[in-house]
Structures are given as C-alpha cells and as structure tokens.
Amino acid sequence: MLSLSEFKEEFKEDIIRILNNRETAKWLLSPPFPYSEKDADDFLSRYKNDENSLNRNFAIVKDGKFIGGIGLKLKSEEYAEVGFYIDELQRNKGYCSDALIKILEYGFEKLNLPVIKAEVFEGNTASERVLSKCGFKFEKESEQAERLGVTYNTKLFKIERTEFSQHKK
Ligand SMILES: CC(C)(COP(=O)(O)OP(=O)(O)OC[C@H]1O[C@@H](n2cnc3c(N)ncnc32)[C@H](O)[C@@H]1OP(=O)(O)O)[C@@H](O)C(=O)NCCC(=O)NCCS
To answer: Residue 111: CB within 6 Å of ligand 1?
Structure first.
C-alpha cells in the first residue's frame, strides 16, 4: 500500500541515496546536489508541516519503505506549487501518480486551495505524463531556470479545484 507520511529519521539513508542520483536531481529545483548527510540532517531537523510553514512536505512510503518525496509550496492564498521525486529503482509503477492524487486531495480538500500548479523543465517527459494523468493542463511557458549548470526552458501546468473533482469522478 502507498501512503504519504511525515518525514522520519529512519528514512535518512534512502533520502540521501535518492537525492544523490544525478538523473533525479537534475530535474529538481531546490535540493542541494550532491546531497550530503548534513543536508539530510538539516532538512529533518527543520522539517515541520505546521501552519507557519509555507512548505508541506511528505514522504512517499510503499509497504513501509521510503521511495520518494512530494510537497506543496504555498505561494499565496491563490495557489501552491507541487514538486515530487521517486527513487529511480521504483519508477513507472504508478507510484508518483498515486502520491500526486493524494496530495491534490490534501491541497484542495484540507487546505482549500483553489489552484495547484507545477513547474517542469522542458524535456521532463515522465513528469509531464504524471501531471497529465492526474488532470493538470498546460498553462504557459515560464521563466528559464538553471540547474546543475544547464539552462532549461520551463513549462507551467495547473489544475483547479473544480477540475480535480470532475477528474476524480
Ligand atoms: C517524474 C517522476 C516522479 C515519475 O515517477 P513515477 O513513479 O515513475 O511516475 P508514474 O509511474 O506514476 O508515471 C510515469 C509515467 O511516465 C511515463 N514515462 C516515463 N518515462 C517516460 C519517457 N521517457 N517518455 C515518455 N513517458 C515516460 C510512464 O510510462 C508513465 O506513464 P503511463 O502510466 O501512461 O505508462 C520520476 O520520473 C522522477 O522522480 N523523476 C525525477 C524527478 C522529477 O522529475 N521530479 C519532477 C520535477 S517537476
């Protein structure tokens, strides 16, 4: 069974291993790369999904094992941006799509957000596929971004709360 849980100390080794994979890290804007034990310690010690935080991050757990992360960054009362990653050894089994549906439920039904967006570097086909399976639509080209020495064109996708309730039916 797949679930979203709080990040725990016991996931540390897998967090470091997964985020130290260049093929994963190159598509992500925020985590440091290379990703050290200290980076994981810092993340776990400041990790809190409380009301004062603009970040709501969750561990993706499959049958008790940490396989990835997913989170919302609250940008304003109008919308949040979602980001995610899955262990390279666990890809293409539908896990990210399952996790994304769960965090959309959380964002729309618990946090009452009207819109959730996702920013994707051009060329990230798997990510676009996951977003489209979950009902996101292309919104517009966004600003260029630099990651690990490469400049990417970026695309913005979005889904509205009303579209999500239709998509779930
Ligand atoms: C994007 C990512 C999280 C997807 O995780 P996942 O658990 O494999 O996703 P799912 O299994 O739910 O869906 C993947 C879909 O992409 C498709 N896909 C994967 N690689 C693809 C490729 N190179 N070209 C076309 N489609 C591809 C799969 O076939 C699947 O679609 P399907 O169900 O229609 O067959 C994972 O690839 C990842 O961690 N990438 C690096 C980090 C990243 O890109 N994060 C997002 C930043 S915006």
So the answer is: no
